[in-house]
Amino acid sequence: MVVLNKIYTKTGDAGETALGNGARVAKHAMRVTAYGTSDELNCFVGVARLEATDTVDEALSRIQNDLFDLGADMCRPDMEKDAEAEYPPLRIADAQVSRLEQEIDAMNDALEPLRSFILPGGSKLSAQLHVCRTVARRAERLAVELATMESVNPAAVKYLNRLSDWFFVAARIANNGGVDDVLWVPGANR
Known about the structure:
This protein has a single domain (21-183), classed as Cobalamin adenosyltransferase-like (Hypothetical Protein Ta1238, Chain: A), CATH 1.20.1200.10. It is 54% helix and 5% strand. It contains five helices and four strands, in the order ββαααβααβ.
């Protein structure tokens, strides 16, 4: 359990922060940027939950918890040393990716196939889910970039990839099952 008695520590005043293994790195380090973006995404999910119905809200609640798992995973480098750690580090599991896939398939089964690209919008919830989708894509790009430099859990990258797809399909569900999707009209304003 985490206990936070004091919120500010002053240990980051010089521009460094601690990773999950205790190592100190610059606050602008790629790893910090990657897991910081998953935290930003979690905030946008919290905003979307304000508009969500029970079923979507329950799914978004699970996603928020998963995003904390993802942050815990990403803030802990040196996956090859996991077995040596005093406490086993929390890592995103393939089962979390599979759950997203099952939810995407179930939602998508209720939708008509797309015949056009869609624009973010329609309902307020749909627009918020599209914001989540784009932030998830940015988090994924950063995780992929980090993986070119350091060890990253492959399941974490897969999770972010599926999560952006989940938000896309959920945004269509939030638009009256896709009926109220805003369709892109190529060259409409020429």
